[in-house]
Design a protein that fits this description.
This protein is of the alpha/beta class and 526 residues long. The protein has 16 helices and 17 strands. An 8-stranded parallel barrel has the order 1-2-3-4-5-6-7-8. Strand 4, helix 7 and strand 5 form a beta-alpha-beta unit.
């Protein structure tokens, strides 16, 4: 077996098995490239997946809202005789969009991360739901039945009625999106109660989803929990956000000093009220100790990747990642567990101005920040995934995020590429951009689409050029050619440059065009 075949074999094994709690940690240098854009993907699965493949995306995160599959989602009464664990009893048309994505992704060698989440059908909500919300106190048992149905459908053996072939297997799952954020799971807290309610809700949802996946042959899959928003509010409200590390402590039934909760406070959070109950906690809530990894959404809202503007210790943005890891480890030790969860960053991106008119960064700065952030996560041996959100900006029609919406795409709404598009395809980052003459600079980067060139032709040589030029309009020339041997396309080189100037990467698609990274300025002193 040659070195390239060995890399592909190892990569295939990593995609199939992923890292469980007892699996040795994969090196950070095999961090997987992931992206999420449900709007584009659901509208055009083949076309969107083709574009993502050309970008080098290895896994696509996709929401599967419970109410989008469930029958009669707008009725308050569960359909009579409905067996929610049987995928054949759901309306076939409700499965069709996700069936297409599953088939089309498998055909292109792209993995999926299906995030099973709300809203819930009205018949799956708890009593007292205000207005038309679909996130109110969802039934854990009904959600578990839905998870069992979708896990059965995508177990690699299920043949849908009217089809001759089984659907491809899905082996990567997230459980509920941002359960610490009121618009996604409510109530976060009841006014006057003094404690959050959402950690209890999520713990129960997670328990039932875990049991469903274990019972349908997905026990060795990558199953993620958390999926937390990076910030929250200081006040407790029905639809507010709970600070992520406070949410985690209450999810694990411990106080701010990491001691097991007792008495009335514990009871209000659905936690054991006695020491005897705490000893059973680890067995009763297996996902909190045995999941494949913890998922976080470390958005920074315009700040540099190394600078969290808030001093709040309960936030979980990118600069706070080491603290988040320590908190997760400490929560395990409370219950005698040595699990050190791998970290999956399943949403990240920078909103740009334009199209936003405020609270955003320029497209060029966003491109730089994205590459810097990826270097940070690549350097962390516990990080498995950094997921770009989105591929394309939403329509600039305003809404809760103002004009331009959540405009973190690699392209503008009309399809015009932002600077981030090239920066995502060929990441480039220099931790230092100044040195003395004769000194070297670290050049880190990635030829992200190279992996698919190997899958198409294992004997294809994959190389990336480090190019250099001078002047205001530099004429670039290759000063080093790097052979890509990393299974995700990463490289890390130290290069001596002849003078101050501009650095970029160049890579050529097999039999196709040459593309370039963003440009980085460097300065050489005397």
């Amino acid at each position: 077996m040659n070195w390239r075949a060995a890399i592909l074999t190892a990569l295939a094994a990593a995609i199939v098995l992923q890292a469980g709690a007892s699996t040795p940690a994969l090196a950070s240098k095999t961090q997987e490239a992931s992206l999420q854009d449900d709007t584009r993907l659901l509208a055009d699965p083949p076309g969107t997946l083709d574009e993502l493949r050309r970008l080098g995306v290895q896994r696509v995160r996709v929401f599967v809202p419970w109410m989008a599959i469930a029958p009669g989602p707008r009725y308050p009464v569960r359909p009579p005789g409905f067996d929610a664990t049987d995928p054949a009893q759901y309306p076939p048309a409700n499965w069709s969009r996700w069936d297409s994505i599953v088939r089309d992704a498998a055909a292109r060698g792209i993995g999926l991360d299906l995030t099973l989440t709300g809203g819930a059908p009205l018949w799956g909500l708890g009593p007292g739901a205000p207005g038309s919300t679909s996130q109110w106190d969802p039934s854990p048992s009904e959600f578990g039945a839905f998870v069992r149905a979708i896990a059965t459908r995508y177990d690699g053996r299920y043949v849908p009625p009217g089809s001759a072939d089984p659907l491809p297997r899905v082996d990567h799952w997230g459980i509920w999106n941002e359960p610490n954020y009121g618009p996604h799971l409510a109530p976060q807290a009841f006014p006057g109660a003094g404690v959050e309610y959402s950690p209890r809700l999520y713990r129960n949802l997670l328990d039932h989803a875990w049991t469903a996946l274990q019972g349908t042959g997905h026990g060795q899959d990558t199953i993620l929990f958390g999926e937390l928003a990076p910030r929250g509010n200081s006040f407790l409200g029905v639809f507010s956000g709970t600070k992520p590390l406070r949410f985690l402590r209450e999810l694990y039934c411990v106080s701010s000093s990491y001691r097991p909760l007792r008495g009335a406070t514990a009871g209000a959070l659905g936690c054991p009220t006695t020491a005897a109950g705490s000893r059973l906690f680890r067995t009763a809530h297996a996902a909190l100790f045995q999941a494949a990894g913890f998922a976080d959404h470390p958005y920074l809202q315009g700040s540099a990747p190394n600078a969290e503007p808030s001093g709040d210790p309960d936030y979980a943005s990118l600069p706070r990642l080491p603290h988040l890891e320590r908190v997760l480890d400490r929560l395990q030790r409370v219950y005698g567990s040595g699990t050190r969860f791998p970290i999956y960053l399943t949403e990240f991106g920078y909103i740009t101005r334009p199209p936003r008119r405020s609270a955003a960064v320029s497209p060029a700065l966003a491109a730089f920040y994205l590459n810097w952030a990826e270097y940070i996560t690549w350097s962390d041996p516990r990080v498995r995934t950094l997921t770009q959100y989105l591929l394309a900006d939403p329509p600039p029609l305003g809404g809760s995020y103002g004009y331009g919406g959540f405009a973190s795409g690699l392209t503008f709404h009309g399809g015009v590429h932002k600077a981030a598009y090239d920066a995502y395809r060929l990441p480039l980052y220099l931790p230092a951009t100044t040195t003395g003459r004769g000194g070297s600079l670290e050049v880190w980067g990635c030829a992200r689409p190279a992996i698919f060139g190997w899958l198409d032709d294992p004997n294809l040589p994959e190389q990336v050029q480090i190019q250099f030029g001078t002047g205001r309009r530099p004429r670039f020339a290759t000063i080093r050619t790097v052979s890509i041997t990393n299974p995700r396309g990463y490289f890390d080189q130290h290069v001596v440059f002849p003078s101050s100037g501009s650095v970029r990467l160049a890579w050529t698609y097999p039999g196709g065009s040459t593309v370039h990274s963003r440009v980085q300025q460097i300065t050489l002193g005397r």
